[in-house]
């Protein structure tokens, strides 16, 4: 029998509700309970694949190829679970299913309504995850903020489930903000009171409140106030503070007694938690001494959420190498406006060109790749970064001046990067790329092989273009080593340059499988090389 913890958010978005969800999961895991998490996204998009990462944060790709909300990335990184498309429920999916069912006449002449038809479909999908995963506790996080019109059907479904499940088998955790106004100098609980009032108006009474406080732990007085006005026990009010690394949050909440209370409220046996492993993971981040500087050369440079998994993968790799990673975002359009600006990259220990789409900033990315190659600066290229590395090499080493990807120049005389054959006929954009986990064969004796230590790996993909087979031989004759390819041998997956301290690029996205306790091999090697460069530079 699965128990359910529903997590909602109040006051504003970006409170770290996802991290609270992960922390709840962790507190239960260290007590030996099996957990997983579901994210409910009230938007009408069917999945996150068509959404702009600059506005919504990155698209996180699952093993099964589903293009998920970035919170699923946090769930995987904290909980060590591999999620599937069932773990992300969007309004788009719900309405699509209900409308298709209506068209098939399955509602037998009835009027199809939000309650019960939409809410029934939400509940069905939530319970389906519980059934398929057979967890002890299923965490169900609702995106957005209480009071959003879009979120109402989800909250209503939660209300119904709380009534339908056995009493004590469900729990509602509400995450809010407690700000401090500088002029007043004291924490304000009113926004929390209002958001709980909003919840109660739709029949939901929170059991636990987690107050996000940027300034430190909530004083007793404010806790009492929240408890009284929000109708929860005083010991059920917790504080979520800023932590670095983020993996410390479960420890902070555990210290306040949240783990024990979760068990008590859910009627779970209060087992002794074993934090030893998690604590040592967190400690590795804290012990890091040296700092390496990495230039992240992208197009959504000014918005960190657009590259969460890349950032986390770099940090995991840093912790494993005993260093902190200072990531600086560089808008590559700068290099197009003023080519001499690329010189600024000489201050960095490593250059990373991440995944991306479209034309903007592409020439600047190519300039960054050329700089890394020529100056021997450790380089990691991901997906678009891989494709543009091939373009750069073709232009500057093969001498194919107008070489390009047909994504940017459909009429290039040298389409070294071209559409995958199976992409040519597709005109719908959602969910139609080459997606998800695919096997990659790794060539023995290469850098990639030394990093992975295996001849067969599985990594996650998200792309439409690939290296054009017509140019494979010429590139290899000119010094490129393709050290990885698809199992059928039809596409290149990894390139490296042997006469360089570290130059590696992958068609896949290794960041999606990086975990704090198990860094992704390409990221690990890249940060290691960057650290070596840093230490060398420091030598007199
Ligand atoms: N735009 C490129 C493609 O579609 C790369 C995609 C990516 O970087 N994720 O193939």
Topology overview:
Elements (H helix, E strand, L loop, with lengths): L2 E7 L7 H13 L5 E7 L11 H4 L3 E2 L5 E2 L2 H9 L8 E3 H13 L10 H20 L3 E6 L9 H13 L5 E8 L12 H12 L6 E5 L7 H11 L6 E4 L8 H7 L2 H9 L9 H12 L2 E9 L9 H14 L1 E9 L1 H5 L12 E4 L8 H14 L3 E4 L1 H13 L7 E2 L9 E5 L14 E9 L4 H6 L3 E8 L1 E3 L4 H6 L3 E6 L5 E5 L6 E4 L14 H18 L2
Parallel strand pairs: 1-6, 1-7, 2-5, 2-6, 7-8, 8-9, 10-11, 10-12, 12-13, 13-21, 14-15
Antiparallel strand pairs: 3-4, 15-18, 16-17, 16-19, 19-20, 20-21
Helix pairs in contact: 1-3, 1-9, 4-5, 5-6, 11-12, 12-18, 14-15
The structure holds glutamine.
Question: How would you describe this structure to a colleague?
Answer:
It is a single chain. The chain has helices spanning 17-29, 53-56, 71-79, 91-103, 114-133, 152-164, 190-201, 220-230, 249-255, 258-266, 276-287, 308-321, 333-337, 362-375, 384-396, 447-452, 472-477, 521-538; strands at 3-9, 35-41, 60-61, 67-68, 88-90, 137-142, 170-177, 208-212, 237-240, 290-298, 323-331, 350-353, 379-382, 404-405, 415-419, 434-442, 456-463, 465-467, 481-486, 492-496, 503-506. The protein folds into 2 domains: 3-280, Rossmann fold (3-Layer(aba) Sandwich), CATH 3.40.50.300; 289-422 and 431-538, Class I glutamine amidotransferase (GATase) domain (Rossmann fold), CATH 3.40.50. It is α/β, with parallel strands linked by helices and 540 residues long. Helix 1 crosses helix 9 (249-255), helix 12 crosses helix 18 (521-538) and helix 14 packs across helix 15 (384-396). The radius of gyration is 25 Å and the shape is globular. Glutamine binds next to helix 15 and strand 17.
């Amino acid at each position: 029998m699965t128990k359910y913890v529903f997590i909602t958010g109040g006051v504003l978005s970006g409170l770290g509700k996802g991290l609270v969800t992960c922390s709840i999961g962790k507190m239960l895991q260290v007590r030996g309970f099996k957990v997983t998490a579901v994210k409910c996204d009230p938007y009408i998009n069917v999945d996150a694949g068509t959404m702009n990462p600059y506005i919504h944060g990155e698209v996180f790709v699952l093993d099964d190829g589903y293009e998920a909300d970035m919170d699923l990335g946090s769930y995987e990184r904290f909980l060590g679970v591999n999620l599937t498309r069932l773990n992300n429920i969007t309004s788009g999916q719900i309405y699509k299913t209900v409308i298709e069912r209506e068209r098939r006449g399955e509602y037998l002449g009835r009027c199809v309504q939000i309650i019960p038809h939409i809410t029934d479909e939400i509940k069905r999908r939530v319970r389906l995850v519980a059934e398929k995963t057979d967890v002890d506790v299923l965490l169900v996080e609702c995106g957005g903020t209480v009071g959003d019109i879009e979120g109402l059907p989800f909250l209503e479904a939660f209300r119904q489930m709380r009534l339908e499940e056995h009493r004590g088998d469900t729990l509602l955790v509400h995450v809010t903000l407690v700000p401090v106004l500088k002029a007043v100098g004291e924490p304000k609980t009113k926004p929390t009171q209002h958001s709980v009032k909003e919840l109660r108006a739709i029949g939901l009474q929170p059991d636990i409140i987690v107050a996000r406080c940027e300034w430190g732990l909530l004083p007793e007085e404010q806790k009492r106030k929240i408890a009284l006005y929000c109708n929860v026990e005083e010991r059920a009010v917790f504080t979520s503070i800023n932590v670095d690394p983020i993996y410390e949050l479960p420890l902070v909440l555990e210290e306040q007694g949240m783990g024990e209370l979760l068990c008590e409220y859910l009627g779970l046996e209060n087992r002794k938690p074993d934090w030893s492993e998690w604590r040592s993971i967190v400690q590795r981040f804290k012990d890091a001494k040296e700092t390496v500087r990495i230039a992240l050369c992208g197009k959504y440079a000014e918005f960190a959420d657009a590259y969460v998994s890349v950032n986390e993968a770099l940090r995991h790799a840093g912790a494993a190498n005993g260093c902190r990673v200072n990531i600086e975002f560089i808008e590559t359009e700068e290099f197009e406006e003023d080519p001499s600006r690329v010189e600024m990259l000489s201050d960095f220990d490593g250059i990373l060109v991440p995944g991306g789409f479209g034309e903007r900033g592409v020439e600047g990315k190519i300039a960054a790749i050329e700089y890394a190659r020529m100056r021997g600066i450790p380089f990691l290229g991901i997906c678009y970064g891989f494709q543009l590395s091939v373009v750069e090499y073709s232009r500057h080493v093969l001498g194919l001046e107008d070489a390009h990807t047909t994504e940017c120049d459909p009429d290039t005389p040298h389409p070294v990067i071209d559409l995958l054959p199976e992409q040519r006929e597709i005109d719908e954009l959602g969910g139609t790329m080459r997606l998800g986990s695919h096997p990659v064969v790794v060539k023995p004796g290469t850098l990639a092989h030394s990093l992975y230590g295996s001849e067969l790996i599985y990594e996650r993909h998200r792309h439409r273009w690939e290296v054009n087979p017509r140019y494979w031989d010429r590139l290899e004759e000119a010094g490129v080593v393709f050290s990885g390819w698809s199992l059928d041998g039809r596409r290149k997956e990894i390139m490296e340059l042997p006469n360089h301290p570290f130059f590696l690029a992958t068609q896949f996205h290794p960041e999606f499988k990086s975990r704090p306790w198990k860094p992704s091999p390409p990221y690990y090697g890249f940060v290691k090389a960057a650290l070596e460069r840093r230490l060398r530079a420091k030598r007199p």
